[in-house]
Design goal:
With 255 residues, this protein is α+β, with helices and mostly antiparallel strands. Helix content is 22%, strand content 22%.
Length: 255
């Protein structure tokens, strides 16, 4: 009798410990595995004893795992302008992890409900920050352009003067397409060559996006020869190395 009581108390304490949600290590994990028998069980006739399961009937195939199942996008309503996402009051669909970590936790968005959509709807005459941007992706494009170094490849034998189309062609090689040369503003001082003294030196151009945002783009001159034997040696990850400014006025900005 005493032994049974001790055993009962032990089991009770273990169950209580497992149900203690304050212990994070013992919390339940909601996972679901959907399985299918590899060999279906044969049906038995009515009022007959069910057939015994054989070893092959315990072979299963995984149909679905909730841990690896792709979760659907979540809808959130923005409380303010978010660069690259949208404007205030706009309802956007995003991946759950991104929406939670970058928008919901910082307080930039809220879950979509009729009350929240009405609450964050921009009011007439409200001075919203998105008015300073031509589109939701404009500021992201500015940041991407300003964080890169573009090589302006020029001929080593023929004389040249850098023009906007040279910049446009160099950016196009890197995946940035500029429709018009008028969107590119060169330095006031003309840059001519070939001149090996200007090799790998930096200068800045201004690129206007949608007629509103302006990005100061860092460029470096690289001389190229059509004769393979006369080409300059390849410099690995040249954009990570320091470079001198081509124009003295750009010295503080280049540093």
């Amino acid at each position: 009798m005493l032994k049974n009581l001790i055993f009962s108390n032990s089991v009770s304490s273990r169950i209580t410990q497992l149900l203690n949600v304050n212990n994070a290590a013992l919390q339940q994990v909601r996972t679901t595995f959907v399985l299918k028998r590899l060999y279906p069980v044969e049906l038995h006739k009515k009022n007959e004893k069910p057939r015994k399961l054989r070893g092959k009937h315990f072979n299963y195939v995984m149909v679905e795992d909730s841990n690896t199942k792709k979760q659907p996008d979540v809808e959130v309503v923005l409380k303010q302008f978010v660069s690259g996402i949208g404007r205030k009051g706009e309802v956007v669909k995003l991946r759950p992890n991104y929406a939670y970590n970058h928008l919901l936790l910082p307080g930039l968005a809220d879950y979509v409900t009729p009350e929240n959509v009405e609450k964050y709807k921009p009011k007439l005459g409200e001075d919203n920050e998105e008015e300073k941007h031509s589109s939701q992706f404009a500021q992201r494009t500015v940041n991407m352009l300003q964080n890169r170094v573009f090589a302006i490849v020029m001929n080593k034998e023929q004389p040249w003067v850098i023009e906007p189309w040279h910049i446009r062609a160099s950016l196009r090689k890197c995946g940035y397409y500029i429709k018009s040369d008028s969107s590119i503003e060169l330095p006031k001082e003309k840059i001519t060559g070939p001149d090996m003294q200007k090799q790998n030196k930096e200068f800045y151009v201004t690129v206007t996006i949608n007629g509103l945002e302006k990005a100061r783009v860092k460029c470096r001159i690289h001389h190229w020869s059509t004769d393979p034997s006369d080409r300059l040696p390849y410099v690995y990850e040249h954009w990570l190395q320091s470079a001198e400014p081509l124009i003295p006025e750009d010295t503080p900005r280049a540093e």
